[in-house]
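Researcher: Sequence of DUF5117 domain-containing protein follows. Predict its structure.
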Amino acid sequence: MNKPLRAGICLRVAIVALAFAAGSCATKKNAASTVTLKTTTTPGGTTTTTATVAPPKKEGIKKFSDLVGKVKGDEGLFTTYKVDGKYYFEVPDSLISREMLVVTRFVKTPAGLKSFGQQYGGEEVNNQVWKWERHDKQIFVRVPSYSVRADSTSDMYQSVKNSNLDAVLASFDIKAYNKDTTGVLIDVTDMYNGDLAAISLPDNIKKLYKVSALDNSRSYIDTIKSFPINVEVRTLKTFRAAESPTDNTNAALTFELNTSMLLLPKVPMKARLMDARVGYFGQSQTDYGTGAQKSEVTSYIHRWRLEPKDEAAYARGVLVEPKKQIVYYIDPATPKKWVPYLIAGINDWNKAFEAAGFKNAIVGKVAPTYKEDPEFSPEDARYSVIRYFASDVQNAYGPHISDPRSGEILESHVGWYHNVMSLLRNWYLIQTAAVNPNVRNPQFTDEQMGELIRFVSSHEIGHTLGLPHNFGSSYAYKVDSLRSKTFTATHGTAPSIMDYARFNYIAQPGDGVTHLYPQIGEYDLWAVKWGYSYFGGGKTPKKEKELLDVWTTKNAGNPLYYYGRQGTSIDPRLQNEDLGDNAMKASNYGIANLKRILPNLEKWTYQKGEDFDDVQTLYNEVIGQYNRYIGHVTMNVGGMNENFKTYDQTGPVYGFVSKSLQRDAVAFLNQQVFKTPTWLINTAELSKFDNGVVIGRIKAVQVNALGNLLNPSRLARMFDNETKSGALAYTVSDLLTDLRPGIFPAAKPDQFQRNLQRGYIDNLKMFLNVDASQSFPGATSAQLASYGLTPINIALSDIRPMVRAELAKISASLPKGGDALTTAHYTDLRLRIKEALFPTKPVINVVGGTVSRFTNDSSDTQIEY
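Model: Prediction complete. C-alpha cells:
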C-alpha cells in the first residue's frame, strides 16, 4: 500500500523501477537453433543456467512449404506455427531491429510460496527489452542498454555506441525462408521451454528453495498466441528443488508463467524532464550529448501517453478526450461485491485529468468473460489489470512498466491482497472510533468496507499513473482544520491521496466530523496537470520544461502544492501516518482518542461464542498507534525542513526546525511517554488475553523512544545547528537538560520509570564504550545525510564529553535510602554509571556501520499500500 499503504496505501514503498537483466549465450556461426541449457551449482547452493548452441546440423535450410506443410499459422506480430510439437516464429524483415518489451508474469504458483513481491499469479517476474537482428543465416536476440546515451546529431554519438554494445541473449539458425512475406522461420521451442533467466524463475526463488535444475520431462509450452502488436507464450515449468513451500517429498516446484512480447512504438513518446519539486517516478540516463563540459544525468518521468483527439479544441481550453484512453480491468477472480468500489477508485482520477485538459481519460472496466472475448487474458501485456490475490498479506501495491526510451507507461498490474481489508478495518476503528459510532462493531458493513477499498484503489492507481508517495502533503492542513466538519467534508485529511494520511485521528467527540479519510486533492490535480498537460507545436522536452518551470515557481511556497519525498528521516513534515502541521498538537488529540477507545474494545468487538483474539489484535493496534505518535513527535528534534529550489527562487533549501518546536517535542515526550502511560494498562481487558507480555511491550516502547531520541545522526544535526545558528539552536545540552526531569522525576520511580532510567544509562554508555564512526562504505556523507543518516565520528565529536558530564550529574543527584527495591535500583544505577565512565570491559569497535542500539527515525513498520 506503495507502507501500511503497502500507497500506496500505496503505496510495496513500498518505489517501482525497471530492471534490465541480460543473460548471455555463446554463439557459433552457422550453429543450429537448438539452445542447450546447462545448470551449475556452486558450493553455496546457487544455481546458474547458461545457454549454449548445439553443433551445426546437416539438414540445412529447408523449403518453407516442406517445413510448415499445411499447418495454418497464427498471424499477428510474428506469425507462429506449431509443427510436430515444435514452435516456430516467422520473423518478418519489417520487424528486424524493432524494440519489443518482454514481460514475464506468474500465472499460477505453488501454495505457500514465500517470496515477497513474487508469490501469486499475475505478479511480475521480469521485464526486458529485446531487439531481433539478422546476421547471415542466423537471428539474434539482443538486449539494448539505456543507461547512457547521446543524441544522434551529437559528436559523442559514435563514442557512446562504441562503449554501449547490446548483449546477445540468444541465437537461432534460420530454418526456412518465406518468399511471400519476406520472413524467416526460426525454432523457439528450446528457448521458451528452457530455463533462460529472462523468461524463467527468478534467482531469489531458486536460492530460497534450493533449486538445482529445470526438469524438462515435467515442463512444456502450453500455448503460443500471436496478436497484432504482441505475442503471448504460456509455459509450465517444473524445477528440481531441495526445499518446498509445503511438501519436501515432492522434490520439485511447478509454476505456470506467461511471457508477453509487446512491440514498442516506432517513434517513442516525447519525454518529460523530471523536477524534484513535483513527485513522479522516473528513470535516469547519463547523457554525453548535451553540449555541457561534463556528462550529465538526464531524468524523465513515467507517464501514460495522452494526446488530445482535437488539438485545436484542446488549445482553446476545451476538455478533450484522449486518442487512447487509459483502461484498467478488474481481475475476474475478484469478489463481485468489491468490483464497483475498485472501479470507482479508478474513475475518481478523471477529475485530476480534467485539470490537464482531458475528459474521460481513464476508466475501470469489468474484465470480459470467455464468451465475450475468448482471447482476453489478465497476463496479456496489452491490458492493465487490478489482480486479486487470495492472500493473508495485509497489503496492496501499484506498479507499472514503462518504455525505457521515453518513460511512457505501457501497462500496470495492481496487486490487491485479500487481507488488506483486515488492515483497513483495524486502522479505521483505532483511528476514528472515538468519533465514529459506525465502526464500533466486530465487522464493517459491505458499504463501509467498500468505501475504504475505493480509497485504497485510488491510491494504488495513482502509483500506476506515475505518482510516488507524497509524504509532505498532510502538513499543509492546520491541525484545528481537521476538527472542522465543513473543512474535512471538502478536503478530506490531506491535499494528496498519495500521502500516508490515513484516517482522521485528530477530530474529537462533539466536533461533528464525519468525512474521515483521504481523497484525491489539490496536490493530485496539480501533479497530474504538470505531468500530463499536452504541449503542441513540436516543443522539445527542454522547451516544455521552461513552461513547466513557470507553473512550478508560481506554486512554490504554497503548502497545498508541496511535494515531500519518501524515505528520509531528516524532515519531520515528511512522515507516514501523520496528520496536520504540528505533530505535538495532533498527537495529543490522537492519544486523547485512544484513551476513549481502549476501555471499549471488548464491548465493541463482542461476538457470541468467539474467543478474545480480536480484542488482543486491537489492543496491540492501540499500542502501535501510540508508538506512531511518538515517532511523529521525535522527528522534530534535530529536524531540518527540505524545500527543493532552483537558482531563480529565494530562500534556503534546508532550514532547521525552530528551537521552540524542538523543545515542545521533548516536553511532549516527557509528559506522554516517559511519564508512565498508565492508561495503556486496562486490567479488565488484559486479563482476557495477556499472558504476561503487554507490560513488557509498553516498557519497550518507552525505551525505544528514548533510544530513537538519542540517535547519533540526530545529535550530529543538532551540533551542526548550534554552529550555524548559535543561540537560536536547540542544542544537545538543551536536550540533556530537558530530559533529566522527565527520566528522573522527584517522586519515587515505579517499575516503568526504573526500566526507563536503566535504559537511559545504557544508551549514554553506548556513546562512551563503542568506537563507532557512523558511516556506510560506498555512500557519500551528503547522500547519507539526505536520508537522515547524518554521519558523525562519535569518538572525536563533543558527544563523549557531554555524556560524561551528564552521567556525573545523574550520579550526584541520585537519592539515597528508601525502600529495599528503590535502594537497590539506585545502587545499580551508580554501578552502571561507574562502568560507563570507567569500563572494565574492552571498548567495542564497530567499523562501517551503526550500533543496533542506535535506532533509525522510523516510527512504524513500513508497509507499502
